[in-house]
Every structure is written in C-alpha cells, then in structure tokens.
Amino acid sequence: MAFDIKNPGLATTVQDQGRRGHYNVGIPQSGSMDQYSAELGNVLVGNTAQEAVLECTYLGPVLTTDTDAVIAVTGAPVEVRINGEARPQWTRLQLNAGDELSFGVIRGGTRYYIAVQGGIDVPEVLGSRSTYSLGAIGGFHGRKLEAGDQVPVGSPLNGGALPDADTVPEEFRPVFEKEQAVRIVLGLYDHRLTDEGLDNLLNGEWKVTPVADRMGLRYSGPGVSWKEREQPFGAGSDPSNIVDAGYAVGSIQIPGGTQPIILHRDAVSGGGYAMVGTVISADMDLVARAAPGTSTRFIAVSLEEALVARKELAERKKNARAALGAHS
Amino acid sequence: MATIVSPLPGIFYRKPGPGKPPFANEGDTIEVGQTLGIIEIMKQFTEIQSDVAGTLESFEVNEGDMVNPGDAIVVVREG
User: Fold this and answer.
1) What is the mean pLDDT of chain B?
2) In the structure, what pLDDT confidence band is assigned to residue A328 with cuts at 50, 70 and 90?
3) B70 touches chain A (CB under 8 A)
C-alpha cells in the first residue's frame, strides 16, 4: 500500500513526534512542526500519536492511493480535494483505490498534515521516521518528496479500530491568525541586552520574515542594543556573540541585534550567538504556525508559568482525544 | 479579466535572475502555462504560471515585494 506522488508540493516531508536524544551530537529532534495538529490527525484515523504523517508546507502535494485508505487533513486551513471535489479538514475521509488527493491555496498558517490509517511506513532512523533534510536522514530517503515517489503506508493498527467521532470539534482546533503572543522564558543571556534592548524585545512588534523554515524563523522589528563589553577570548567581535555554547530548541538569538531568530525543530544544536530567551514548549506549535508577516509580541513568563502552560496543553490534547472517543 | 494569484507566501521576482530580462511584460501575449514570475520562500523558487491565454494587462505587485497566499500577482485579459 502506497501513495503515488504526482506533484510533491513545495516541501512535503514525512514527520512524526521527533528524534529525541541526539541533540548533544548535533542531530536535531525534527518531527512535525505543529505537533498538536499532527497528533489530532493521527487520532482521527485510529493511529497512536507516534505514527508518521506527511507535513505539507504552503503548497501541498497531488497524490493518488493504490488501495483504499482512511485519511484526515489537519493543521493550517486549506481546501482539501478528492478527485477535485472539496472536502472538509479535521474530519476523517475515505480514499478509494485510484483516488487523487490535492489541495487548494492555503488560507493561513504554514503547514497542514495528512494522516493516514496505519501511518507513513518508512524505516525508523535513530528511533524516528522524521525527515531531517539537512542531514539527509530519516523520512523518505532523507529528503522531501519528489514526483514519482511511492510512499509506503502501514497496515491499520489496533484491528483497524477508529475513534467514535469523525470530526475534531471546533473548540479543539488551533487558530491560525496573523497576530500572535508568544511566551518566552528569558535567559541565558538577556543580561547582555541594554534596558532599551530588553524593552524592545518584550514590548516591540516583531514580524515574521519570509526567512522562516523548519530550522528557524527570522523576525524583523525594532532591533535591540547590547551592553558594551570587551568580548571574551573565543567569542566573535559583535556584542551579540558569545563563546560557543549549546542552543536550546526554541531559543532566540539576535545576530547583530537586528533580527531575532527562533530556533525550531531542525535547528543546529550550538553556536556563538547569545540566546536572550527561549520559547516555552507549549508555544512551539504556535510559532510553527506563524506565516511570513505574522505580527508577534514576546511575553516573558516564569519557568513555573511555562510548566503550567505545558500541563494545560497536555490536558487540551487529552480532552480532544476524549471528545473524539479515541481508543488508541 | 483573469487574476493570477500566488499560491504561497514569499518574495516576488519578475526576472529569473539579476540582470536578466523579465519573464513577461505588460502587453505581452500570454499562453496557458507560461511563467510570469517567481516566488522565493525557504530558499526555493516557485514559478507563477498563467492558467489562461490572453494579453498581460498589469502586474499587481512589484519586483521584490512580499506576497501572501491568494494575493493577486498579474491580471490577464483573456482571449
């Protein structure tokens, strides 16, 4: 059982929950950028949260299936088409052998997900099916999909059991807006910013630039200034430079003090830019949904507040599963 | 009149590269599938092609402008 890729779209990759535990040797976690949307797609088709899905970026693929398949499309708003006919998102859909799946123009956000019963069945690499394109590992031959690819689909899990409901209720769907408030925990190097620099970071309006991908998102805005200091041995000459250090996923660096970059799921694991803050884990999916032009404010929260937000997100997922009557 | 819209966000360019002539100009006769410009996003260039035949009436965005999905790029007078 396979999907035949007629047109791959812009950057369609196989992703799952990610490849944990290798960041210390430079291999990022990868995985679906919008984990929440990908997971609910999996729930709709009777998968566990671990199955691999297809992540579609802006321009989706055109594909046909060689056998009957149960799918769901979640994530950014887009018209789903089966044999050219419009179908809803966030709903379980039946594909019959030979059917063609395609998409209209994305109406917001960045990425939508195709989940299929049984999951995308590529081999695991270091414990994950996620594609890390830059490192050419995982996913489908370590790369984004190309025309002519036959992407294997697994057998239904759990005896083919599906959740009782076939549609994710509106209240459990994320919003895809052009304005975001992103919560961050300050540190480790926010003390290197001037008072004005910190004020600009937390009270300025920052816009996502077109330079945004799975590695990171670059923002434009008022810029920040750094305190004067004699740069230590081993650090670059710009005040935004530090002696090389490990980067956290979600950490924010501001090279030269002009355009902040939020590192995302395919980010490099270390380097020589001061990290002024880190996006809390509960808001990483939100950042992943930010299309170019999205107006963003950074809200400083405490570690305690970040942990509460993480619990709330886990609770929301649990409630969404319960609302669907998921068995997996 | 037919409006050709961008299917994705990015930076719009009318030329295939710096110093090269534009893909198309106002008043040109346009065929179905003809490339009218390119959009750069995530270090990739996606061609914007006409889905109608006719005469290129106007460009709705300038070289180097940021566009969003669904934004009008080009207006073509059909026929």
Assistant:
1) 95
2) low
3) yes
Cα–Cα dist A205/A199, whole Å: 11
Q: Among all residues of chain B, which has the CA nearest to that of A111?
A: B8
Task: Measure CB to CB from residue A213 to each of B7, B42, B46 and give the nearest one.
Answer: B42
Could you tell me the CA-to-CA distances from A264 to A218, A245, A252, A277, B67 in Å, in that order? 11, 17, 10, 13, 23
ipTM above 0.90, yes or no: no
- Domains delineated in chain A: 2-173 (no CATH), 179-311 (2.40.100.10)
pLDDT in tens, A202-212: 999 999 999 99
- pLDDT tens digit sequence for A97-110: 999 999 999 999 99
CB nearest to A210's CB, from B5, B66, B69? B66
Taken in order of first residue, the domains within chain B and their CATH numbers are: 2-78 (2.40.50.100)
pLDDT of residue A267: 97
Cα A109 from chain centroid?
A: 11
Nearest in space to A1 (alpha carbons), one of A174, A156, A188, A175:
A156
Name the residue among A10, A59, A105 with its Cβ closest to that of B5. A105
For B:14-43, CB contacts with A below 8 A are 40-43
